[in-house]
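Morning - histidyl-adenosine monophosphate inputs below, output right after.
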Amino acid sequence: MPLITQAVRGTRDVLPTQTYLYRYLEETALQTARNFGYHELRTPVFEHTELFERGVGDTTDVVQKEMYTFLDKGERSITLRPEGTAGAARACLEHGLLGGALPCKVSYITTCYRYEKPQAGRYREFSQFGVECFGAPTPAADAEMISLVAEYFAAIGLENYRIELNSIGCPDCRKVYLDKLREYFDRHTAELCTTCHDRMAKNPMRILDCKSPVCGEIATQAPATLEHLCDDCDTHFAQVQHLLTSIDTPFTLNSRMVRGLDYYTHTVVEFVSELEGLQSNLVLGGGGRYNGLVELLGGPSMPGCGFALGLERILLHLQAAATPLPGRENCELYIATQGEQAHAAAFNLAAQLRAEGIATQFDIVGRSLKAQMKYADKIDANYTCVLGDSELESGAVRLKNMQTGTQHAFKLTDLPEEFAHFLVQQAHEELTAMYE
Ligand code: HAM
């Protein structure tokens, strides 16, 4: 297969038959986030490699195996962002947002890049909707961002998912926990994979999310984080749970979920699809608290929490569940023309109609009237009209509703305004009928 006619493995084109669905998911996401006080941040697609090595952690799969890293022409090591949190923290720090009004709440829609084995719902380029909240240490911040996801899912009609919750504690209780983990895994060294041998020394918690089935099996019996929390972490986590319960947001505890990125402390969360027929336990999104990240990047000591959802996975879930999704906006009026004079008039008329906000098309190919009507049918135009010498002479045109076949007469001079008015009236009548 010639390379130039095929997208790179793990990447996908989003065609016009799907892009509007992403727009809908993205706009609803940003709108929901705005209701919680989050405003959109855009950061560069590539950053200095060190940001992710330090931020995400050099014992993670993401950093060790999955980053797209290269030297630029100035011999700097550059990495395509594998996730959004480190870049968001870097940007907020660089532009002094963390020295302003706190909490500082940012949302984002970004593409991310990870060299993973492609499969359904797993790509090498994918998009995330995420939020990050800096400067809020209380359990209410954790619960609020989890409830934001629940609100978003409700807004797009996403059902059949569960919220998995865990706490992985602070650096103090983590020390005790890591010792316990090492003790446990020491007894299984011979069975662990070579990468996990490395993890034993650097960060045994990473063994808990090793993708090797043998390590995974051993991990199921490993000590649980929840049994090793200090009093403060325990109280914090209990309050997060209490707050979620108080707003009727159900969750399940998963004391072995540790998340695949090193910056997390305290609460961690995952949103898991429970839809039958879809890849089992497809993780739609995840997040948690990361109280040490800002300081790790050279900033002040500052708490933070956030999440990111995979938009491709959300669309997969919605489509598999046959959730009603908005339709694509069709061409409202197709003006078929006959004759040179009518064609020139259509050019003008289309401009006036568009100025009224009406999506209008006319022939720019030079087709016969019959072929123009065929095209109008193919693009699913809502209305069509024929403009020829006789219409220009009479100054009137008949618009045909392509679904019902009903015709409506308009004066040419009034068409843009009158048709706009007509459409508003139609929409109003449809709405009234729906509620009767
Ligand atoms: P993450 O769990 O690595 O967390 O990714 C979040 C979500 O992105 C996943 O749950 C999944 O839906 C989607 N995702 C990840 N990898 C792929 C892939 N290869 N193909 C398709 N979708 C994928 C983070 O990225 C953290 N930055 C989240 C966060 C924000 N934590 C705190 N703030």
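Note: Residues 139 and 239 are 6 Å apart (CA to CA).

O.
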